[in-house]
Design brief:
Distance between the termini: 11 Å
Bound molecules: 2,6-diaminopimelic acid
Largest sheet: 11 strands, mixed
Number of strands: 19
Number of domains: 2
Strand content: 35-45%
CATH topology of the largest domain: Diaminopimelate Epimerase, Chain A, domain 1
Length: about 270
Amino acid sequence: MRVPFVKMHGLGNDFIVLDARKDSLPAMTGAAARALADRRTGIGCDQLVLLEPSETEAFRMRIFNADGSEVEACGNAARAVALLHGERARIETGGGPITLEPAQGGARVEMGTPRFDWESIPLAFAMDTANMPVGWAELENPAAVNVGNPHVIFFVEDTELVDLAALGPLIERDALFPKGVNVNVASLVGPDHLRLKVWERGAGLTRACGTGACASAVAAMRRGMTGRTVTVTLPGGDLVIEWRADETMVMTGPACEAFRGSFEWDDYA
Ligand SMILES: N[C@H](CCC[C@H](N)C(=O)O)C(=O)O
């Protein structure tokens, strides 16, 4: 079976998008997602995004990391899907409903409400998630936030001095995080301006992480480091995160279609 795809990215965090909203596709498996994500023997991506019909919202967005794990949320993919869909829509995700719409040069996504209690991250045991009494090498006293998916955030003087390629996988798979975790290293580089690097659960170092930008911005706001609208500079570029008075987060930033193609399903299933 020949399957069409759209290759997209948000600040260089890249996706294979499969659209099964009208014509159904064979059931996606972790193994198929992993094979398609392989940058040498497959199409290559950080995440595979599958659009399906929904009983409750305009449609459903499912997300598979490059390692094949299916996860709850992906901020950059939400902006790419907004561009593809072409109009404002409230959609179903594993992390809860979000509302996305195309905006000048990209998209705007209402990302839902962050959760801070330790069981919602989740953590393996009770802990103050605003300032956790834990550390790995020079990274210590992080915050933890669930923004549909789990994030731990370390605030440091200079993100460039942190060997995130070495520390990221250790923290991602630490027993403190029963569902794994996305590892964020952020520094305050100006008023309401963070610099951020992310080791993503199931994907490793990426050029940008939309949910990581949301989680890190909210964690900084909780610590009184910034106001309620923050620019987050990632290796791939900038996102603007607003934490509204009603507790919902809004992320605005670029999204891009790179190319379209098709593949033989049986070669990857
Ligand atoms: N690695 C994430 C999913 C992708 C998130 C990221 N690409 C974004 O833009 O939010 C996780 O396992 O929760």
